[in-house]
Amino acid sequence: MFKLLGWRVAQAAFVVLAVGLLTWFLVQSLPGDMAWRIASGRYGYDRVDASAVARVQQELSDSLQQGSALLHWLFDLMQFNFGRSLVSGEPVMDELRWQLSQTLALAGSSLFLTILFTLPLGIWAGCHANGKLDRALFWLSALLKSVPHFALGMLLIVLLALQLDWLPSAGHGELRHFMLPSLTLALSLTAVGVRVVREATYQVVSSGYYRWGAQKGLAPATLLRRHGLRNLASPVLTWFGMQFVWLVEGVVVVETLFAWPGIGHALVHAIFARDVPVIQASAMTLGLLFVLLNMLVDAGCHLLDPRGARA
């Protein structure tokens, strides 16, 4: 366990350094006038003139004259100091905390809906394999899995926001603003999650010890509670944990579609505006989250797996 923890800590340090260096070099090599893009993001495209671009160019040259830009950035990185946004002028960490909280809130609500849909349907289908519900869920899952997130999101916007006027198509701050983006992510995950839980449940109910418990006369609900759920926990937790990692890492499209003020949405805008500090801070935060969440999933599986508990 401690060996695994040490490996994950080393992996996190490597991810921070690698992602930071990669984003720094990629931003520097992007085509176009960086000063013009920063000025456009700061003042607006219709207000950019030669003097505004010249001011930004002077700011960039002043920062480079402070020493090697790369070495200066590495020194700040060790102190978790990402500086100020080149567009807004606000401290990057202040903006990042807000954006990260919004991304985690969206990912958490999406995962909650996924669990709400997936566990009862998957367990029921696994306990009644090849039944009508199992076959219906198979075809419905295949259909939902084949639809891209942006297409599913657009369909939900047209149906629930424009046609029925039940939910807002964009915005944040209220519970109803969570519904459309969370539902978009949850439906896509449920399409796969139902099959994962169904297969895990089917493996458990088909095992010898489970059938032996049934022959002893235990009620199906008691049998599932005593002998099924613990053996389901490890594969199901692994899948849900990995999906939460994916939700945090992969919400860029959904956040952009629904104008959700998360870290993915901010990263896209920062790339267009050449806001280097925001790009670096966002990319490294996502990389660290990936390592941290994977570490938590590994620890949870180690504790819940009966074979791991006996080892």
From TrEMBL:
<keyword id="KW-1003">Cell membrane</keyword>
<dbReference type="InterPro" id="IPR000515">
    <property type="entry name" value="MetI-like"/>
</dbReference>
<dbReference type="GO" id="GO:0005886">
    <property type="term" value="C:plasma membrane"/>
</dbReference>
<dbReference type="Pfam" id="PF00528">
    <property type="entry name" value="BPD_transp_1"/>
</dbReference>
<comment type="similarity">
    <text>Belongs to the binding-protein-dependent transport system permease family. OppBC subfamily.</text>
</comment>
<keyword id="KW-0812">Transmembrane</keyword>
<keyword id="KW-1133">Transmembrane helix</keyword>
<feature type="transmembrane region" description="Helical">
    <location>
        <begin position="137"/>
        <end position="162"/>
    </location>
</feature>
<dbReference type="InterPro" id="IPR035906">
    <property type="entry name" value="MetI-like_sf"/>
</dbReference>
<keyword id="KW-0472">Membrane</keyword>
<feature type="transmembrane region" description="Helical">
    <location>
        <begin position="104"/>
        <end position="125"/>
    </location>
</feature>
<feature type="domain" description="ABC transmembrane type-1">
    <location>
        <begin position="100"/>
        <end position="297"/>
    </location>
</feature>
<keyword id="KW-0997">Cell inner membrane</keyword>
<protein>
    <submittedName>
        <fullName>ABC transporter permease</fullName>
    </submittedName>
</protein>
<keyword id="KW-0614">Plasmid</keyword>
<feature type="transmembrane region" description="Helical">
    <location>
        <begin position="178"/>
        <end position="197"/>
    </location>
</feature>
<feature type="transmembrane region" description="Helical">
    <location>
        <begin position="278"/>
        <end position="297"/>
    </location>
</feature>
<feature type="transmembrane region" description="Helical">
    <location>
        <begin position="236"/>
        <end position="258"/>
    </location>
</feature>
<feature type="transmembrane region" description="Helical">
    <location>
        <begin position="7"/>
        <end position="27"/>
    </location>
</feature>
<dbReference type="GO" id="GO:0071916">
    <property type="term" value="F:dipeptide transmembrane transporter activity"/>
</dbReference>
<keyword id="KW-0813">Transport</keyword>
